[in-house]
Design a protein that fits this description.
Number of strands: 8
CATH superfamily: Aldolase class I
Distance between the termini: 29 Å
Number of helices: 7
Number of domains: 1
CATH topology: TIM Barrel
Shape: globular
Order of helices and strands: EEEHEHEHEHEHEHH
Radius of gyration: 15 Å
Strand order of the largest sheet: 1-3-4-5-6-7-8-2
CATH architecture: Alpha-Beta Barrel
Helix content: 25-40%
Amino acid sequence: MCAAAIDGGRHSQRSVRVVINRRLDIAQTLGAHGAHLGFDAVSPADARRSLGPGALIGSSTHSVEEVATAARAGVDYVHLAPVYAPLSKASGRPPLGAETLEAAARHSTRVLAQGGVTAAETPALIARGASGVAVTGAILQAADPAQATRDLREALDRA
């Protein structure tokens, strides 16, 4: 399974990077750009040793404290979720809100806002400190998933 994130980084060339979700072995075999580690995964340092120094290593977080811990552990980015109520599934966690995102973004790692994120919210989330967004429902629930993806990309480009 692949984790897809739309990066809000401001670079002149668009590129697609493949990050494999939870399967370091598959990421290594495929020569993927990185791995998104599960809570039961190897450490970020071990993942980087396996995939190489340029690999993207990420993890999921659900609080400012977890973002701080992940940053100290050496991840390149985190998904902070759920910022809003997820569109793709029921969540056992209450939405964190944009204020929590802003506090999390003060740590020394890139924070991707996840959970209930659509193109409409994206500019405000970037303004609050998100480096980008990680979405599922905004694309899969859309009548036109390709257009929803383009809308997200355009929202990031404008932010």
